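Following up on my earlier thread - several people asked me to post the actual chain instead of describing it. Fair enough. Here it is, all 147 residues.
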Amino acid sequence: MYPFVLGVHNIFRWVVLIAGILAVGRALMGWFGKKEWTKQDRLFGVVFTSSVDIQLLFGILLYFVLSPITKGAISDFGSAMGISGIRFFAIEHVFYMVLALIFAHLGSTLPKKVDDSLSKHKRAAIWFSLALLIILVGIPWWLSLIH
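Reply from S.P.:
Thanks for posting it. Predicted structure:
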């Protein structure tokens, strides 16, 4: 079960990244192009935020139930913090991704609180960009170098 869920989690990151790039691009084009806020703008944000939410569910399942890495880290947290690879998955990856989740939700929610389109696009662009940047930082790209 662990290899399957980990594989889905790894593949689904591309859905998150593509949705994030599209949401950021759409918001930036709206902001700098001074375009009207449309239902499609909202939809791009909802798809991005929803994909991050789904990815979080896979991550929670891995972290608390399936992953031997985090099970070991939780059982001996002090020792785990001395090993950079284990520390990354036990603390850093989780921190980055929860922060990205918060930023994505802010990008989806804060545009609702203003009336003008320019402000909606600006808020979406800023928060979605921050979420995407944090996701890029928090993905363990170095694993592809090892395998």
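The CA atoms of residues 12 and 106 lie 22 Å apart. That should answer part of your original question.
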